[in-house]
Design goal:
The complex is a heterodimer of chains A (about 350) and B (about 300). Chain A has 18 helices and no strands. Chain A is mostly helical. In chain A, α5 crosses α9, α7 runs antiparallel to α9 and α14 runs parallel beside α16. Chain A is globular, with a radius of gyration of 22 Å. Helix content of chain B is about 45%, strand content about 20%. Chain B has eight helices and six strands; from the N terminus they run ααααααβααβββββ. Chain B has a five-stranded mixed β-barrel with strand order 2-3-4-6-5. The radius of gyration of chain B is 27 Å and the shape is elongated. Chain B starts with a helix and ends in an 11-residue tail after the last strand. Classes of the chains: A mainly alpha (about 350), B alpha/beta (about 300). Chains A and B meet through α2, α3, α8, α12 and α15 of A and α1, α2, α5 and α6 of B.
């Protein structure tokens, strides 16, 4: 048997082989006494994050499917303001009308970019939507009451997202910022939905003159594709977050986290590590109010929803690497500045 | 892997995810992973996931294309069948019937789909559209939670998780909920969290010392306690297991050495005040410590 034949034979066994190996690994980890307990904890935390995030991701992919099928490109171009400041501002309050959290906003914003949404609007929407949306405002108000913390969270989220949006307004053509799957198609054939990115074979199954029934079918098929494309990063992010929670002692973080600057940094690291959905993170933050400075709790509430492990991984599906770097570092610097100066200059 | 096979597996994995979530909801085990006030959202995702799978399968199988690849017009009936077929395993799982009942339905969909797919692939020998490796990896990624969920024994967080979090001595007080509300509870209906809150936040706890507590929790030997003492702890979960924090009451029990960490116990006795690191927590002078089963809902919701 020639070498080529051998590799061909090997290839056809690759997928089933990988599945079997994975099954073997999981089973042995869960029954081997040395690892069983920690593995069990990992699994519970991992599934906790995943199960909790699935509905929100689903809402996002479904919204994205609706946008793909029912929103025309001209509509978006007609409604978005021309000036960068106004369009960034519009993006930052768009979340009030599309209540999605940080998992759901990624597929939606990617779809909107494909439909020609301006970059500053999309960036501001991406960062602000997990905070400035009715569900999150309500949950923050429930946890902290209608007061300073709520106003600061919403207000500073607006500031950070608009500034980041404006920075992106100066950045040049969409093709340099976005990955090609997120770019608005230029040919009319592609605009009909016949874009040929790698997972869109199903497009051929649906005729061009969509009936209402096949339109709905297409909405769900777009969400299915997107659930896989974005969901794999949710899985990866949840696995990393769960792994860190199983291995890195939190009390070490909490012990070093005193003082006006360190406390802010620690709370932000914690926000990234925990990767909790923004719809509920204020209840979690409440647990730190007595331990940490007010500025650092704000840092947690401000930065956590914008950037965490899973969202960064998902950003990479929309933006090119360099853009993601900016997308993480600008909010990071701004959130640190805001929280630390609150700790120094505000008195309560 | 060709495009049709890929699409079929994609739909089946999503359908399995729907069945998995439905089963967890029906069996009450969802409470091991998330705060149950989110279960309506989980049910919503079960519906959407099933619809995704149903549309995925029916678009794949709607009518048999002829050799030239043209879609026949009379495909509506077949589509309807695949639609109903996708919902059957999910509905049986939701109804709380045992694994033995809904799993065959799932296998039925799988088998029917595989046969249909084989027929399709046989007819369409010209169908050479391949799927990229990255896409195949995404199948693995979405199957991973399913794999863990099915293969790893279902368990709630245990004292092992305390290795990295530790038992916290204070409970966060939501502003919406004031301590007096928990005070109105009859003392022996208060849970661990209620007691900890009272001792954390009440100005004067002297009226509560001497009351009788009867609480359920897991055993944890905290290094801050003396010998002859242990913690009876519970995890409090706001959103999901990722944000769980453990709180506990100290228990005086001469035989504490013989209790294994993670054993679930019911502790009954008079409550006293204990101060550790400047934090007031409740201490039970136990009259009885009895072993119990893990409660239906292992976590407390603050």
């Amino acid at each position: 048997m020639s070498f080529a034949q051998l590799t061909k034979k090997f290839r056809s066994f690759f997928v089933p082989g990988a599945v079997l190996l994975l099954v073997f690994l999981v089973v042995s980890l869960s029954y081997w006494p040395l690892s069983a307990a920690a593995w069990g904890t990992f699994t519970t935390i991992f599934l906790g994050i995943f199960i909790e995030a699935v509905p929100f991701l689903m809402i996002g992919t479904f919204a994205s499917g609706l946008v793909e099928v029912y929103v025309a490109q001209d509509t978006i171009q007609k409604w978005t303001p021309k000036s960068p400041l106004l369009s960034a501002f519009a993006g930052s309050i768009l979340g009030l009308f599309f209540p999605v959290c940080e998992c759901g906003v990624v597929p939606l914003v990617r779809r909107l970019f494909r439909k020609g949404l301006p970059i500053p609007t999309g960036v501001a929407f991406l960062l602000a939507a997990p905070i400035i949306n009715p569900i999150v405002i309500l949950s923050t108000a429930t946890a902290f009451g209608f007061g300073q913390m709520l106003l600061m969270r919403v207000g500073f989220a607006l500031v950070v997202s608009v500034i980041t949006g404006l920075v992106f307004a100066t950045a040049g053509a969409p093709q340099e910022i976005l990955r090609s799957v997120a770019c608005a198609p230029s040919t009319p054939e592609e605009q009909n939905g016949h874009h040929h990115d790698f997972q869109c074979q199903h497009c051929h199954d649906v005729g061009d003159d969509y009936g209402q029934k096949s339109k709905m079918s297409r909405v769900f098929q777009v969400s299915l594709e997107e659930f896989y494309e974005i969901g794999r990063f949710l899985v990866l992010g949840a696995a990393i977050a769960a792994g860190m929670q199983t291995l890195i002692p939190q009390n070490i973080l909490l012990d070093i986290g005193r003082g006006p600057v360190l406390s802010v940094l620690v709370m932000m690291v914690l926000a990234v590590l925990l990767s909790i959905c923004s719809t509920v993170d204020s209840f979690v933050a409440l647990g730190f109010v007595n331990i940490f400075s007010t500025g650092s709790v704000l840092g947690f509430l401000l930065f956590g929803p914008m950037v965490d492990i899973k969202s960064v991984l998902m950003f990479l599906q929309v933006f090119r690497g360099r853009a993601v770097l900016y997308l993480v570092s600008i909010p990071l610097v701004l959130a640190i500045l805001i929280s630390v100066s609150l700790n120094y200059f505000a008195s309560w | 892997m060709n495009a049709k096979t890929f699409r079929f597996i994609q739909s089946m994995v999503v359908l399995s995810l729907a069945v998995y979530l439905a089963e967890k909801w029906a069996s009450g085990r969802l409470s091991y992973y998330i705060n149950l006030r989110f279960s309506p959202l989980i049910l919503l995702s079960v519906v959407i996931l099933t619809l995704m799978a149903a549309f995925g399968l029916s678009s794949l199988f709607s009518g048999k294309p002829d050799i030239n690849g043209a879609q026949p017009q009379n495909s509506q009936k077949v589509t309807g069948n695949w639609f109903i077929l996708s919902f059957v395993p999910v509905l049986t799982a939701l109804s709380g019937l045992s694994l033995m009942i809904f799993f065959p339905f799932f296998l039925l969909v799988l088998a029917a789909g595989t046969i249909r797919l084989a027929a399709l692939n046989h007819v369409e020998t010209h169908n050479t559209e391949r799927v990229s490796k990255i896409s195949i990896l995404s199948l693995f990624a979405i199957s991973f939670p399913l794999l863990l969920g099915v293969l790893v024994p279902v368990q709630s967080l245990s004292a092992t998780a305390l290795n990295t979090r530790g038992m916290s001595l204070s409970a966060p007080a939501s502003l919406g909920e004031t301590v007096p509300a928990t005070l109105q509870n009859i003392p022996d209906e208060r849970n661990v969290l209620d007691w900890v809150k009272i001792f954390n936040y009440e100005e004067d706890v002297s009226s509560h010392t001497g009351e009788t507590a009867e609480v359920i929790g897991f055993v944890y030997h905290d290094s801050r306690l003396l010998s002859g003492q242990f913690m009876v702890g519970r995890f409090a979960v706001t959103c999901c297991a990722a944000d769980a924090f453990a709180i506990g009451m100290a228990v005086n029990w001469p035989d504490s050495q013989n209790l294994q960490d993670d054993t679930w116990v019911k502790v009954k006795g008079n409550v006293d005040l204990l101060v550790i690191d400047g934090q007031r927590i409740p201490l039970i002078h136990a009259e009885s410590v009895t072993q119990v089963d893990v409660p239906e809902q292992p976590y407390l919701y603050p």
